[in-house]
């Protein structure tokens, strides 16, 4: 009984259980959707499996977030070094511009060049995820106290060692918060990638909207919502582990 209570109290575990039930058990809910939406001839989206759509959705979000972490993190580190300080304003402007442009506009511009598929969506989501990662990388590194850097230099550390062994570990919680924001935003935004041919959980939503089929919309939306809860809870767990690791260190 205590084990069941602990599972129900764990947001990550509970979210994963609900997500698995929705993704794998959606076909079993067809009679329910038929009752709720009696006027629909097809109350369940069956063109693709929800498991395949979920995996494709996560792959797109993961790839775009990773690309944003690599590009935004490298750029954020560069502008906090003496050699890149003069480009700080340019970086802020570019990152803000990427966040300002609607993803739909980026998709529309990318399609004539890259064609239909996941490539335009990958570019749009990467640009959309840059701003929080750049801002938090810069803020995290700039929050490291100068006396800590001086102490590291006094121990004979070079610039690279100070960055890897002192600055990045201390800035990690702030950087992680930026990655979390980018990932959660990209998770929701990825749904519109289906407008350019990418297979995501936005596919049943878009088909449902175009075909006046609210059941499809609900089916896609509840899984995206469950994914968002699981992702957010996962970052909570990761942040707690990071805090404990820093405390032990």
UniProtKB/TrEMBL annotation:
The keyword Membrane applies. The chain crosses the membrane at residues 58-83, 104-131, 216-235. GO terms for biological process: glycine betaine transport; transmembrane transport. Gene3D superfamilies: MetI-like. Residues 54-235 form the ABC transmembrane type-1 domain. It comes from the Bacteria. PROSITE patterns: ABC_TM1 (PS50928). It is a multi-pass membrane protein. It is found in: Cell membrane. Coiled coil: none annotated. SUPFAM superfamilies: MetI-like. Pfam families: BPD_transp_1. Its main location: membrane. Keywords: Membrane, Transmembrane, Transmembrane helix, Transport. Belongs to the binding-protein-dependent transport system permease family. This is ABC transporter permease. It comes from Roseomonas genomospecies 6.
């Amino acid at each position: 009984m205590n084990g069941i209570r602990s599972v129900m109290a764990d947001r990550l575990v509970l979210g994963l259980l609900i997500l698995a039930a929705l993704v794998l058990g959606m076909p079993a809910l067809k009679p329910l959707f038929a009752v709720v939406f009696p006027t629909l001839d097809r109350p369940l989206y069956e063109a693709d499996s929800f498991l395949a759509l979920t995996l494709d959705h996560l792959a797109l979000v993961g790839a775009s977030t990773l690309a944003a972490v690599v590009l935004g993190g490298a750029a954020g580190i560069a502008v906090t070094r003496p050699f890149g300080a003069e480009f700080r304003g340019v970086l802020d402007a570019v990152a803000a511009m990427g966040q300002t442009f609607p993803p739909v506009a980026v998709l529309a511009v990318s399609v004539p060049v890259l064609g239909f598929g996941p490539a335009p969506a990958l570019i749009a989501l990467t640009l959309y995820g840059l701003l929080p990662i750049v801002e938090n990388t810069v803020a995290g590194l700039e929050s490291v106290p100068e006396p800590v850097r001086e102490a590291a230099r006094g121990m004979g550390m070079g610039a690279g060692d100070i960055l890897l062994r002192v600055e990045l570990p201390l800035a990690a919680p702030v950087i992680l918060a930026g990655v979390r924001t980018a990932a959660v935003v990209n998770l929701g935004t990825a749904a519109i990638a289906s407008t350019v041919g990418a297979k995501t959980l936005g596919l049943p939503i878009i088909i449902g909207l175009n075909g006046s089929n609210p059941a499809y919309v609900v089916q896609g939306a509840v899984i995206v919502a469950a994914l968002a809860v699981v992702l957010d809870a996962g970052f909570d767990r990761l942040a707690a582990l990071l805090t404990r690791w820093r405390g032990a260190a």
